[in-house]
Design goal:
The chain contains six helices and two strands. With 171 residues, the chain is mainly alpha-helical.
Length: 171
């Protein structure tokens, strides 16, 4: 009987043009089961999955609160599903929508990102210096630049002088 009342209330909302959010409804039980494991840590993608699902629940709860008097049985469901607002704020504070962790997520995260950026800049400057030297010494064509191969920064080298260059030479 209770489920039938809930279905009737849903029909009533739909007939009034009120619709539930269409995306973001996911079964969170597998994720909840993993969280039961002591020491388990959610990966960034799992946090985003959880966040989107919780935001869908939040939107549904907000919508059902506005229809409480007309749909009391559906409203009773949302009382069980309410998630504290601070949970959403904390997830948004830590993650960007694509799952990337924000630089501002923590002081340590900020420091690590800054160090990574500084190291990349220093490496780029060193490679540009090496490239200029290789062009000057005739090891590299003058119209060439630093390229990326298999995720690594590389300097193109002419075939003839490649044995005179220190480092790893990939063909």
């Amino acid at each position: 009987m209770l489920h039938q009342q809930q279905v009737e209330e849903c029909r009533k909302l739909i007939s009034e043009g009120i619709v539930f959010p269409e995306t973001g409804f996911h079964d969170l039980r597998p994720l909840a089961a993993e969280l039961e494991i002591e020491g388990y840590v959610l990966l960034a993608g799992q946090w985003i999955f959880l966040s989107k699902a919780l935001k869908t629940v939040q939107e549904s709860v907000k919508m059902l609160r506005t229809t409480r008097s007309r749909c009391p049985q559906l409203y009773l469901l949302c009382e069980k599903a309410a998630v504290p607002e601070e949970v959403y704020r904390e997830i948004d504070y830590v993650f960007i929508e694509d799952g990337e962790i924000r630089d501002t997520a923590s002081p340590e995260q900020n420091k690590l990102r800054k160090k990574k950026t500084d190291d990349q800049s220093r490496l780029r400057r060193k490679l540009e210096f090496i490239l200029k030297s290789a062009i000057t010494d005739g090891y590299t064509p003058e119209d060439t630049g630093i390229t990326i191969r298999n995720g690594r920064l590389v300097l193109p080298v002419l075939a003839e002088p490649k044995r005179r260059i220190r480092g790893i030479v990939k063909d």
